[in-house]
Amino acid sequence: MAGKIKTYSVHSLVALLVIGFPLLMSFIKSDNKPNLVGIVISDEKPKFSRADWLDGTYQDEMDEYTSDRWAFKELMVRLNNQFYYDAFNDVRVNNFVSGKDNYVFAEGYIFSAFGDDLLKESKVSEKLRKAKVVQDTLKRKGIDLIIGLAPGKGEYCVEYIQDKYKHPVKGTNHELFVKFAQEYGLNLLDLYDYFGKLKSQAKYPLFTKFGHHWSYYGECLAVELTIRYIEKLRNTDLPDLKWDEVEVIDSARSRDADVLKSMNLYSNPAQNMNLAYPKIMFEIDSLKNRNRVLVIGDSYWYGPVYMGVSQKCFGFGEFWYYYNRIVPTRVVGQKIEVWELDLKEEIEKNQVIMLMYADGNYPTYGNEFIDDAYELYTSPKTFYERRERKKQIQTYAKQIREIPALLKKSTHKSNDLMIPLDSAITLDAMRMAGFGK
């Protein structure tokens, strides 16, 4: 009997250690914030208040905070993601899927490649009709508007997409945008078509297995063509982008494995690609660097921003990410958003306004810039009235983007409702402003 009791005691002690060790580690470690990419972590410990306690808010926020800082959260997330990737070829990144030969894709860009997100012709026609009015209005002020179309990975790497997504293509948004841009006489910079022509000729990959955007080499080619296009459009001379040497390596740098980082694996797979990294140089000539170019677009243009194109070639112009975030930040420590600015004044500071979106974002091309600019120049009174009405919602939306606890709630809503994060943020902002439940 004594032996059995002793055995039970040992087993109980082991069980207690297994259950209690993570909790003990949580107290021992001074900072348990996991090093995970793409996961919103609440930085500030929830503050107790009677109201939050009574309605359950405090308990929910404290549960989130504690869960985020569990001592083994990072390890468990990585092991879990590794299991799904190895066992099922499943990428545990929202809206991303595996393809053939270890390629990963944003699912929306697959849909775009096969025309599953095809817009009505009338919608594209009306958007680009307004763009033509804006283009003509700005031209009279010495400003050129450019419609930039960029290829996404789904279209360019279509042969690596899983067969279950493939079907005959009846039409794509790219075809519609090209059709109406040409009909209306818009300034069209078609990188989509350019990359398509390069595919059989490019010396090095223009997209990588574990990257979502153009490869660094592809970004260099895209910037080079963009410079030449603006020079021809404005009959001017911009600082040149040159490289005499290209380093070729088999491990990704820059953004060439940005999805891999977000996969949060325990052990990263081999990339098995020779990637090119031109050692670029911008021509230094202040007399040439006088055309201020404002780029409005999606994350595909972040690569050229990191290269220094805005400062070294585009006259210190800005990048308005999704027509919202201003890059670079104008005031250190302050995140000023586009809606807080005088749009007319900001537009007319530039010599070129270029919209540049990859095909997965054609359904929301311009993020309301075209509509806003059209109304601004054709009906300024209604534009400013409408903008004033939206300010309250936009103020709350900015708070959500800047406060991790609020952003996390919107992220959960985005996943639960299967809607874009920006849409979830807008819904929460409307609720905070008293316009919804």
Quick structural gist:
The chain is of the alpha/beta class. Helix content is 48%, strand content 12%.
Give an overview in words.
With 437 residues, this protein is an alpha/beta fold. It has 3 domains: 1-29; 118-378, no CATH class; 385-437, no CATH class. Helix content is 48%, strand content 12%. It contains 18 helices and 10 strands. The chain has helices spanning 2-28, 50-55, 57-68, 73-88, 107-113, 121-139, 153-156, 173-184, 191-198, 216-234, 258-263, 302-307, 309-312, 343-347, 369-378, 380-402, 404-417, 421-432; strands at 96-98, 104-106, 144-150, 188-190, 241-249, 275-282, 293-297, 319-321, 325-327, 352-358. The strands form 3 sheets. A 6-stranded mixed beta sheet has the order 4-3-10-7-8-9, with helices on both faces. A hairpin with a 5-residue loop joins strand 1 and strand 2. Helix 17 crosses helix 18. 33% of the residues are buried.
